[in-house]
C-alpha cells in the first residue's frame, strides 16, 4: 500500500502538481490514504502498546545490570506528532485504539498531501516513526559509552524476557557471547539477574568471560565436537 501510494505521488509530481485538479487522481489517492491508514493503525497500535509494556521491564533490567548508571526509558516518536492521543505509548497510559489511530492517520495524510505530492513520497505513517532509547535525558545513540550501550542492549533482551515471562510462562533466556563486552562488575550483576530465570543458555568464546556466579552445566565446542566440561 505504501509503495502504491508513493508511485501515485511520483506520477502526480511529474505532472507538475496538476493532479490536484484531477478528480480521478485525487479519488485514487483517497483510496490509498484509507488503505494505508487502516493497515498503519494496526501496526502503530501494536508498537505503542508494546513500548508501553516493555519500557518498565527494560528500565528495571538496566538498573539491575548497571545500578550506578543513569536511568533508561524507551519512547516512541510518531510521525503524526501532536495528533497522537496523549498517553499513548507511555507506561500506565491508555491502550492504543485502532479505530482512533485510523482517524488520526487519515487526517494526518490529508494535511501532508501537498508536501507529499511535491516530494513524491509519503511523509506520514509508521514507516517514518522512530524508537528513542533514552539514557537519562539524552539519546543513548551518540551519548552512551560502550559499556552503557551494551548494558542497554542487554536490558532490552532481559526486558523482553520478563514481558514474555509475565504473559506466557517461562521462556528460555538466550545470552549469546554477551559477557565479553562487559566489565567484571557488570558481568556479576548480569549473572545475578540471569540466575532468576528457569532456563538459561549462555555462549562464550572465552571460558573465563562467564562469571563464577553463573553456575550450571558447561559444554566445550572445539573442532566440531561437543564435550561436557
Task: Annotate the secondary structure layout.
Elements: H1 2-14, H2 23-65, E1 72-77, H3 98-111, H4 113-119, E2 130-135, E3 138-139, H5 146-168, E4 172-176, H6 184-194, E5 199-203, E6 219-222, E7 225-228
Parallel strand pairs: 4-5
Antiparallel strand pairs: 1-2, 2-3, 6-7
Helix pairs in contact: 1-2, 1-4, 2-3, 2-5
What features would you describe in this structure?
With 229 residues, the protein is an alpha+beta fold. The chain has two domains: 2-139, Up-down Bundle (Glutathione S-transferase Yfyf (Class Pi), Chain A, domain 2); 170-228, no CATH class. Helix content is 48%, strand content 14%. It has six helices and seven strands; from the N terminus they run ααβααββαβαβββ. The protein has helices at residues 2-14, 23-65, 98-111, 113-119, 146-168, 184-194, and strands spanning 72-77, 130-135, 138-139, 172-176, 199-203, 219-222, 225-228. Strands 1-2-3 form a three-stranded antiparallel beta sheet. It has a two-stranded parallel ribbon with strand order 4-5. Strands 6-7 form a two-stranded antiparallel sheet. The termini are far apart. The model has no long low-confidence stretch (mean pLDDT 86).
TL;DR?
With 229 residues, this protein is α+β, with helices and mostly antiparallel strands. The chain is 48% helix and 14% strand.
From the structure above, extract its key features.
229 residues, 14% strand, 6 helices, two-stranded parallel sheet, elongated, Glutathione S-transferase Yfyf (Class Pi), Chain A, domain 2, alpha+beta, three-stranded antiparallel beta sheet
Amino acid at each position: 500500500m505504501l509503495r502504491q501510494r508513493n508511485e501515485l505521488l511520483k506520477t502526480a509530481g511529474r505532472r507538475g502538481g496538476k493532479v490536484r485538479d484531477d478528480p480521478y487522481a485525487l479519488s485514487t489517492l483517497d483510496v490509498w490514504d484509507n488503505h494505508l491508514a487502516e493497515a498503519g493503525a494496526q501496526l502503530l497500535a501494536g508498537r505503542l502498546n508494546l513500548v508501553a509494556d516493555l519500557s518498565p521491564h527494560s528500565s528495571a533490567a538496566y538498573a539491575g545490570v548497571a545500578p550506578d548508571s543513569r536511568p533508561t526509558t524507551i519512547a516512541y516518536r510518531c510521525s503524526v506528532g501532536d495528533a497522537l492521543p496523549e498517553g499513548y505509548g507511555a507506561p500506565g497510559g491508555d491502550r492504543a485504539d485502532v479505530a482512533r489511530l485510523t482517524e488520526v492517520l487519515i487526517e494526518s495524510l490529508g494535511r501532508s498531501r501537498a508536501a507529499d505530492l511535491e516530494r513524491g513520497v509519503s511523509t506520514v505513517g509508521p514507516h517514518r516513526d522512530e524508537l528513542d532509547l533514552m539514557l537519562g535525558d539524552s539519546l543513548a545513540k551518540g551519548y552512551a559509552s560502550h559499556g552503557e550501550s551494551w548494558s542497554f542492549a542487554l536490558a532490552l533482551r532481559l526486558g523482553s524476557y520478563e514481558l514474555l515471562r509475565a504473559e506466557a510462562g517461562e521462556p528460555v533466556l538466550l545470552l549469546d557471547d554477551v559477557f565479553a563486552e562487559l566489565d567484571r562488575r557488570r558481568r556479576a550483576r548480569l549473572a545475578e539477574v540471569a540466575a532468576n530465570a528457569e532456563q538459561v543458555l549462555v555462549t562464550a568464546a572465552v571460558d573465563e568471560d562467564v562469571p563464577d556466579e553463573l553456575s550450571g552445566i558447561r559444554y566445550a565446542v572445539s573442532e566440531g565436537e561437543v564435550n561436557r566440561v
